Amino acid sequence: MKMISRGSGFDGRGRGLYSTFRRLRRKITGVDKKTIEQYLGQQKLKKLHLGCGNNIIEGWLNSDLFPESNRVVHIDAKETYPFNGETFDYIFCEHLIEHVSYEKGQHMLNECFRVLKDGGKIRITTPDLSFLISLYQSEKSELQKKYIRWATETFIDGAPCCEDTFVVNNFVRNWGHTFIYDEKVLRFSLEKAGFKEITKCDLNKSEDKTLRNLENEKRMPGGFLKLESFTLEGTKRTSATRS
C-alpha cells in the first residue's frame, strides 16, 4: 500500500483516477476474490503481505492499494480486510503504516490481530523517527552524509544545497507520509491491538525463518533502507495459548 511510491510517475489526482478505474475493472472481473480463494485453498501456511508495491514475495498473498498485477490483490490496509478472523499464520508489511494517520494505523493493527490465527505473527518495518532526529544532529556518519546528498538530489527539486533541514522536511511530507513512528509508540500500538512478545529485529533478520529476508533493500542504495527503518515483530496470544 505505497500510497505514492518514490519515483512514481503519477501525481495524486492522476493516480487516484487510474486506480479507481483499475479497481472497478478488478471488481467486475472478480480477480481479487478468485486470487484470494485460490491462495487460501492451496497454501497450508497462510501469509499476508500488506502494501507489497513491486516487492512480490513468493508463497505470500501479496496485496496493495494500487495493484499493478493480477498476482497482487487490492486491499486498503486502513479499512476492514476481506477475510474471516484467524485466517493467516503471518502478516508482513514494509513502509506502509506511516502512510495513514495514527488512528487508522491503530485500526490497521487491530485488523491484523483479528485475521491472524492464535499464535500467528506480525512483522512491521517502518521509518524511524529517531533516524530523522539523528540525521539533524551536527555529528554525522559518512552514511548519513551520503543519504542527505542522495535524498536531496533525487527527491527535492529546488533545494539550494544538500542540508539535513531540507531532507527532514521533505521526509515527513512526501510520498504520502502521515505519521512517523518511533519504537516506543509502535510497540505501544501493537500491545494495544493485543500483540504479545514484541521484539525488535534487524532488517531481513528474525528468529523465525519465515520472517527472514523479506524487506526490499534493493529499492534504495546500499545501507539506506536500514538507516531509515526499524522492525518490530509481535505474536497473537490468547489466554488459552501456550508459548
Descriptive terms for the model:
disordered N terminus, Rossmann fold, 8 helices, 18% strand, single chain, alpha/beta, 243 residues
Mass-distribution shape:
globular
Strand content: 15-25%
* Major sheet description: 7 strands, mixed
Total of helices: 8
Task: From the 3D structure, determine the CATH topology of the domain at 12-128 and 177-217 and 229-236.
Answer: Rossmann fold
CATH architectural group of the domain at 12-128 and 177-217 and 229-236: 3-Layer(aba) Sandwich
Major sheet strand order: 3-2-1-4-5-7-6
- State the name of the first-level CATH class of the domain at 12-128 and 177-217 and 229-236: Alpha Beta
Separation, N- and C-terminal Cα atoms: 32 Å
CA radius of gyration is 18 Å
Number of strands: 7
Helix-strand category: alpha/beta
Can you offer a commentary on this structure?
The chain has helices at 12-29, 31-42, 102-115, 129-136, 142-155, 164-173, 183-193, 224-228; strands spanning 47-50, 61-64, 73-74, 88-94, 116-127, 195-201, 229-236. It has eight helices and seven strands. The protein is globular. With 243 residues, the chain is of the alpha/beta class. The protein has a domain at 12-128 and 177-217 and 229-236: Rossmann fold (3-Layer(aba) Sandwich). The chain has a seven-stranded mixed sheet. Strand 4, helix 3 and strand 5 (116-127) form a beta-alpha-beta unit.
